[in-house]
Amino acid sequence: MKLFRRSSVAQVFAGLALTLVTACGGADDDAAGATDSTTTAAPAQNTMGGTIVLPGTGGGTANTNTNSGASTSTTGAAPSNNAAPAPAPSAANDPAPASNPAPAPAADPAPAASPVSDPAPAPVAAVATMPANLYVPPECGADCKAHDIPAVIWRMSKKYNIPRWFYYSIIHRESSFDRCKTQPENADSRDYGRGLTQVTWGWYAGVPYPQHLASPDNNNSTWRQNMGIGGSFGAWIDMNDVTAIPSTPASESDCRSNPKSDDAYDPTTNLDRFSSGFAAPAYHLYHSAGESPTETLRKVAYHWHYGLWNSWTGAYPSDPRPYLSGTYGYDAYVNEYKSVVEADDGVWNGPTCKAPYSASGC
């Protein structure tokens, strides 16, 4: 940046004794060679107003509005437009005045701060989309498809590394793909079996957290007793890893006509609670060294129905209901779904994911 300034020089001419001595003051702005002392700053650009394109909205280049007007600085000393006044004329007998020192140049205004770009927005987590043409059980009818249940199951399979054929088999056995199915099960009304997997009792169906706690508490004595934590099974599950059921369940009729998006009937909420609150950690609880992953999942299905310990006629595989065997049992549905799902997804070799769980899997 260049600065321009002006100065005045007073001269005194000595003449004859009777001649009046005349001193000339500082040159005015019209005198030849006079220049304006105003400090001129280079124009600055204003880059405010850039458009931020959110992920998934089509992209494109952000637009920037440019203001090409001269900058007005708000920091530093302002430049002066006024030169120092010229000295008054000297008397004849006064010595010639020394030249006026040049006025101190006005300080440069502080340069305009470089425009700072707004930080890029955090990427929006995309909801995984189920690939087209994947197998969907014929038992998943119009309502099942309308509520996107096949895609919900596909996402849960990715999140917990539980095969789709297992979800299909459990859901068929428990609810026949009826998201609004309700079963009293001799429980308090708030703990009725509900939804695709029939989450039942306070330790599985509690709102918003197991045992109907407002926040997770893995040291809750009732929870620990019901889940065998620190007793029969050790620390196989932690309530802090169990997905919440945020909303008190609607009635079955409301589920059909005006469903909630976050109660036990909601397919995503139901399967998240079933998976995080039982199936995924139960795989590691019941798996034996050298056992096939398919056999371990069969144990998981068995204990989902009969309870964490044994059936009333003995230990696994005692099946007095029957739940596993028979035309409408879990085994029949595994035989129906497993091979066709594996044709899409490949053979599942376990294990299930361990907490903390992520939509991207483990």
Characterization of the model:
It contains nine helices and two strands. The protein has 362 residues and is mostly helical. It folds into two domains: 1-40 and 84-109, no CATH class; 142-345. It is globular and about 45 Å long. 28% of the residues are buried.
Identify low-pLDDT runs.
1-125
Number of domains: 2
- Give the rounded overall mean pLDDT: 76
Q: Which strands sit side by side, in order, in the main sheet?
A: 1-2
Number of strands: 2
Oligomer: single chain
Shape: globular
Structural class, judged by helices and strands? Answer: mainly alpha
Compute the CA-based radius of gyration: 42 Å
Give the count of helical stretches.
9
Strand content: under 5%
Share in helix: 25-40%
Q: H/E order of the elements? A: HHHEEHHHHHH
Tell me the distance between the termini. Answer: 60 Å
Main beta-sheet strand count, sense and barrel state: 2 strands, antiparallel
